Structures are given as C-alpha cells and as structure tokens.
What we know:
It is a single chain. The protein has one domain (2-117): Beta Barrel (Lipocalin), CATH 2.40.128. Helix content is 15%, strand content 45%. By secondary structure, the protein is mainly β. It contains two helices and nine strands; from the N terminus they run H-E-H-E-E-E-E-E-E-E-E.
Amino acid sequence: MLRRLALLLLLAGPPGGQEQVSPEVFLEAVVGQTLTFRAWQSDLLVGEEQFLRRDLSVWTDPTGRCTYGRLEIRGPRLCFHYEDDPDPDNCWQIFRHEGEFLVMARSLEVQRVSALREAPLHCDGVPVG
C-alpha cells in the first residue's frame, strides 16, 4: 500500500527526488507555526493551518472559514478529525521535495507548503495551546 501511494505521488505530483517524512518529524518542524498550502499542479491556495500542539490544529479555507482539528498519528500517516468534517480517513502522507514539505491528501491531491510562519491565523476563539 505504501509503495502504491508513493507511486501515485510520483505520477500525480512532482518529478522524482521526494523522500517520505514521518508525522513525528513533520510535527517537530511545524508545531507553533502556521502553514500555507497550495495545490502542487495549479499553485492555487488550498488554505492555511496553524499547528497549535502535536494533537491540535486550526484550519482556514480560502474563504476564511475556520475549523479545529484533532491530530492523530497512524503509522506513516498524519490524520485529522475536524469539527466540521468527521471523516476518520482524512489523512496525509508527508514528503519533502527540494526543501519543501509536500502532503498527499485523502483526495490524492498533492499540496505543497508554500509558506511557514509564526503568525497565528485570524479566527475567533483560537486556543492558545
């Protein structure tokens, strides 16, 4: 299954040269940060996510609508349980390509982290950790 997902990433996303990153390594790099996600192929804004703790994030879509998510590590995948989307299979495979994080979302769409910053999202009632 993991080999199949890596092959799909290769076909749907960037040319070779990506390496898989464990959820633990990814969380080490992003907790306390806000990440901007863009579609790999089109560069369209997908949204932003602030990683408040290793188990809690807040996501905002391009319209500015925010939702909170609980994070869970399941083997090589990082899974999210959002308040407004209870899908238990909302999980990412995480890769690094040319210094950027890439995630393969449940839709098999490849997204890249185009920015990583310490500024918080602008949502009402964001927990402070």
